[in-house]
Write a structure and sequence with these properties.
By secondary structure, the chain is α+β, with helices and mostly antiparallel strands. Helices cover 58% and strands 18% of the residues. The protein is built from two helices and three strands, in the order βααββ. Helix 1 packs antiparallel against helix 2 (38-66). It is elongated. The protein starts with a strand and ends with a strand.
Length: 90
């Protein structure tokens, strides 16, 4: 089930969109990078951790700021075109 629970500003949307794209890019890079290049591999793992933390922090901060509804087993998603936030539940 998908329920509209809020909206963010375009500037707020831009932050999460940038993190979303970076996280996806890092995940794709992780699929092709091997541990043979230890230095690059460590940088990738570190960057994935930092980006993941920033990504989750944005959701936590915005949820608290706007008071979005949440649900056990649910997650929020954003429509980048409209800046609308949806609660997605199983």
């Amino acid at each position: 089930m998908k329920k509209l629970v809020g909206q963010v500003t375009p500037a707020e949307r831009d932050v999460i969109q940038s993190l979303f794209e970076r996280r996806n890019g890092l995940n794709e890079l992780a699929k092709i990078l091997t541990a043979d290049n230890a230095e690059l591999y460590e940088k990738l793992v570190t960057d994935m951790g930092v980006t993941g933390t920033k990504f989750q922090h944005w959701w936590d901060t915005m949820a608290q700021h706007y008071g979005w509804e949440s649900a056990e087993g649910g997650n929020w998603e954003i429509n980048f075109d409209t800046c609308e936030i949806y609660l997605v539940t199983p």
